[in-house]
Amino acid sequence: MKKTLVIVIDLVIMGLILFFIIQYANTKMRESNESVIEAFEKMTVSAEQIITNYLEDEQHLCDIWSNYINRSAEAGTPMTAEEAISFIRKAKISPIIYGHLILLDESSKSGISTHPSLSNPDDYSVSYRKVQLFDSLDEISKKDGVVNLTRAYTNPQNGIQSIAFMNIVNILDENTGELKEALLMRVEPVSALEDKLVFLNGEYESVEISLINKDGDYLVHGKSMKNSNFFEYYKSYNKVNIDDYNRMTSQLTSESGTMRMSNSKGEECVISYTPLKSMDTWFLLAYIPAWELANNTVVDWLLLGMVTIGLLSLLVFNYLVLMLYNRKLAEAAQMATQANEAKSHFLSTMSHDIRTPMNAILGLNEMVLRDSHEEEIVAYSESIRTAGKTLLGIINDILDFSKIEAGKMDIINVDYSFISMLNDLVNMVQGKAEDKGLAFNLDVDRNIPTILHGDEIRIKQIIINILSNAVKYTKKGSITFKAYFAKETADSIRLIISVTDTGIGIKPEDMDRLFTAFERIDENKNRNIEGTGLGMSIAQSFLNMMGSHIEVESKYGEGSTFSFELVQRVKDWMPIGDYEERFKRSVLERVRYRESFCAPNARLLVVDDSTVNLSVFKSLLKRTRVQIDAATSGDEGISLFKKNHYDVIFLDHMMPDKDGIETLKEMKGLTDTLNDNTPIVCLTANAISGMREMYINAGFDDYVTKPIDPERLEMLLLHYLPKEKLVAISEGDDADDSTIPDFICKIEDIDVNAGLIHCGSNEAYIDTLMNYLDSAETNADEIEKYWQARDLKNTAIKIHALKSTSRVIGAEKLGDFAAKLEKASEAGDLNTLESQIEQLLADYRTLAGALSPLKETKDDYDDNSLPLISEQDMKAAYASLAECCESFDYDSLAIIIESFEKYSFPENEKSRVKALKKAIDNFDYDLIPQILTGGQDYEV
Amino acid sequence: MRFKLERTVTGELLKKFCVAIAATTMVLTMTSCGQDENNNAEFKPALSFETECQLKVAGSYSNFESLESEFERFYEYYPNVNLNYVCLDDYDNTIASALISDEAPDIYVTASWMLDEDRMAPVLEHAEVLSNPDLNINLDCIRKGARWSLDNGDVIMLPIFTRSYGMLVNMDIFEKNELEVPENYSELIDVCEKLEAAGYEAPIMGANGTTVAGMYYALAFPFFCDDVIKNPDSVAALNSMDKSAGEIMRPTLERLGDFVDSGHLNPNLCGEEIADDYDAVIMRFFEGDVPMMLGSGDMVSGTLKRESKSEAFIANPFKYQFYVVPFGDEGGYFLDAVNLFFSVNKNSANLDMTNEFIRFLMREKELGNMAAIKRLITPTNDFSVDEVYSSLEGFPDERAFSYQETGLNDAVNKEFRAAAYKVANGIMTVDEAVNAYGSLWDE
């Protein structure tokens, strides 16, 4: 899991905890605020009661006045206006309370006041003409106890904002003597009412009480309430739609409740409202800033802050610990990566390094098998071959597994012949089965299409693994291989393969381990059975990559059936026919092949930088009498390619300067040569899976891995060589008449016996030693040249060749020395190379010097044992020598003259050939043309 | 101290004001340039931050939101002061009593007409002399046409809002028709013709009445005032309703008659479509098809709140500005009139804080804010606060004057309004109106 993801998850969890706390705190705060608001509403109700009581009391006083006046009228002694006012002057106690008697029949709405105007002390008249106060006189109730209250207005007599309690009285009209109605007003300053509410400030510091009428006009005006109308004020500072506004005004003027709104400063405030009891015209508003009611938040925020800090500390701590562990993990991962890289390096070098000696082991072992007549030796040799092949299989499995693990294994689909694949499979397994006395049964649907499209190599590998396992784990009985198919689509089939054996079977509890790498079931019981435990795992991996899997049915002790299905595209629907019949025929053919072939007129070119490998190659085909031209570099090979016709060409891949692929491309690029249609086969120790495709894609016609499987090599040649060049095998030409010269046995640095084992025969050993000697000076010079140019890659390649060839001839000490410097080259260890490469070259040259008498010995060989060169070939060779001489191409001269050794020459030409060889060895470019033209006596 | 106001008659008083204004204009003009820094400077409280008291402002506006916003701003300096605005019923009659009551206001609204009314003398008697240098009130921020002082130089009334007379111009119509707002009479005629050609049946409208908010007052009265200022000898005869003085009205009435006759102004149409000189005139303008709407500054002040009440304007809002009507050959005349004054009750129980509030208020910034909220014209020279009045910025001094500079009394004003209405509506000819001077006004 990435570090960032861990931190994000931590933060999310933190966020959730904080969210919960906030929600919880908010809920608690809301509950608390609700109770606070409830208390505030109760206070509002208390204020309403106080005000209502006050208003009712004051109205009551007004009613007392009016009752007294009206009782007088009812008693038949009505008061005049003056008398009524005079009565009120006497009746009222407070000087701030005014009594006004307004004559209702006057349009001027004027009358008499208990007090004179402040601006004119002699004037007791009062006029409400310009005060809009009496729009609804009809609504004034004459009943006792009903509060008839005006809005707040300016008392005309004193200019003070006041309210008035009203009642209707009957007074005597002095002019008419009739009774008439007048309005009696008990006028009090609004401040008197406000004073009654002062007590509320003790409980709520910022509370403001306002009284409004139905239209929102104020009777009592709180300080924070701007505008002369509450509803206008609300609209000015609160953006609401018309519906909400109407709902608000309706609620405010009909019921008790609480609302929130913004004041003129944009601050939230709470308004608690309630109608004044017994009056439906006035409504009490208690205003308070919301912050005064919103208590308890400090504690919650403190808690929240502390929790946040705590969680952050925890996060930082965890992060630091995580960082520490991550660092350790990163180091471990780095080490693991390095180990993995080392493993990959090991595997790739193992591929090459194990396969090269394996080539010698298996190749030379094959020589032993062919040449030895001692039964005991042959038996040993057979064991070597079996063990060697097993070892190769194990190496291949490990390489495949490592490639699968690294995700570098690709499925490469090609068109393939199902028959051909079956042949390969059966050929590989049937022998093993027969060796164990097992019956190998085939059940192949004759309608399977001939040509399919899929990864032939992998499918073959899968089936071989299954079949090999079946053979391995079956002691008696049979192995049955079935191949069927079902049509999938118009251009594809579902191939159904199964292998049934009568082997030991698998316990149900072991089934799960069957496909686990390096797991071997029933290890104790099967200890004697070879294997790495990788085969089934690899097979399963390949199938998974192809969208399939292996199915297993097994009964412990009775046998197993392994099967799988694969969808394959069909390229040719022609049925394969009766495969069993074909198989029987092929078996017969194969028996003949085992007897090998002979093709003395066939000519091969093999290019390999290692002369030892060239020697092994030649030895393996010696009995076939095929003519083999060898070249030790790409350029040399190309030169021969231009001059001679070959039936098959073998090219090594890894060569200095110009590798096999570059050489191939250059050859293919040439036109009008004698080899336009010659198949070219790759010869390589690089056996990692997938390489075959690479080589085929590069343009090779086929691919042979080292160590060379002699049977495969012969099969391949049989396939590619023209039939007319194949002749019947002649017996009795396998004698080894060569002897090892004494001076060789006396060379301390050479273990002759080891050399013989490596090379297979005395003659092969002498040939190998000759090759070693011939190439020694050139190789030493090249190593020196590459080293001086600090070309470590080619230096390593040349030292590698020196290592393997030295070991082949039995010069183990020099071989080990070369191996050491090869590693130093690969590792870029310049210090080791600086200090030791001179010694290596000196040892190399010393050994070559010790072997030099071999040249003299060779010259004495009886050329008559070799095939007589044809006149045509001889002339062509002379012409080539002349050309090479003109271009000072020593390498080609050397190769041509070396090729002369394979032939015997007519008597009249022998002295010329010797003279040529001497001149070429002495680099005498002036003499060679003279010898060729016959203008020079030959001094040999 | 007793004011001379008690003893003088209107004409004398006004003359003295004119002299005072003329005398102080030069000084103030010369010093005004250097006052900008003071005007814009941050207010520096002179009293303790913690001072507690209650101040009451009395006036006749039922709502005074612009003042209440200043209360809030003042609380930033004095959070423990409680300012309260009280609207007095029948203000003209109750303010005198209120000033001597137990709940007397600390600040109260005054008006220029109070100077002419003997009955208002007690009200003015309570006014503190605010030009007292000890009070450190910045009177220099007031524009020359809005300044008022007694003949002795004392200032007892501070202008808060001013108004003028002119027209609201629908800028979108002018822009759409690629027209410039006219700057003199010939351009006005030209623009009207082009607008008519463009399909605007009535290029200029207004309330067809005799009020100061009516269209004839905005159109022609400033032009008439200019004539009077240029002929100061005519003032006495005009004020005394001398019949022969009507002749001075002739040039104005003739131009008005010609303008109406040209068909650019249709009194009948205006009368049919515009019922009053405030609400109806604004709502008609918001219909969006009237290029120029004549009226007073009060009309402009009512536009802001009515924008949201006009469905036509909400659907198709447009840009509009206030312009002086270019009725003269050289241009229009800016008649400066104070709409509202504040005076300080010299008997205030919290006189220091009251003066502190006045000192706070008398700055371009605060007066500009108040004017912008009320959408009246600021009494300062800074017209930038409200874009509607931006055309007044830099208006030529030679064509700007206050009503008081004319020396005319209210009766002349009424006679002119009546004459203009009657000539425009064809009730009288120019000759008849001129000859009927002194008896033109019908109550």
Strand and helix layout:
The complex is a heterodimer of chains A (940) and B (443).
Chain A: H1 3-74, H2 81-91, E1 98-103, E2 110-113, E3 125-127, E4 153-154, E5 161-172, E6 179-189, H3 190-196, E7 208-213, E8 218-220, H4 230-237, H5 242-252, E9 257-262, E10 268-275, E11 282-289, H6 290-293, H7 297-371, H8 375-405, E12 414-417, H9 418-435, E13 439-444, E14 449-454, H10 456-472, E15 478-489, E16 492-501, H11 535-545, E17 551-555, E18 559-575, H12 579-594, E19 603-607, H13 611-620, E20 627-631, H14 634-643, E21 648-652, H15 660-669, E22 680-684, H16 691-698, E23 702-705, H17 710-720, H18 742-746, H19 752-759, H20 762-788, H21 792-808, H22 812-827, H23 830-851, H24 853-859, H25 871-886, H26 890-899, H27 907-921, H28 927-933
Parallel strand pairs in A: 13-15, 19-20, 19-21, 21-22, 22-23
Antiparallel strand pairs in A: 1-2, 1-6, 2-3, 4-5, 5-6, 7-8, 7-11, 9-10, 10-11, 12-14, 14-18, 15-16, 16-18, 17-18
Chain B: H1 10-32, H2 36-40, E1 53-59, H3 65-75, E2 81-87, H4 91-100, E3 107-110, H5 121-125, E4 158-163, E5 165-170, H6 171-176, H7 185-197, E6 204-205, H8 215-230, H9 234-239, H10 250-261, H11 267-273, H12 279-285, E7 292-296, H13 297-301, H14 303-307, H15 311-315, E8 320-323, E9 334-344, H16 351-361, H17 364-374, E10 400-402, H18 403-406, H19 410-424, H20 430-435
Parallel strand pairs in B: 1-2, 1-3, 6-7, 9-10
Antiparallel strand pairs in B: 3-9, 4-9, 5-7, 5-8
Helix pairs in contact in B: 3-17, 8-10, 8-19, 10-19
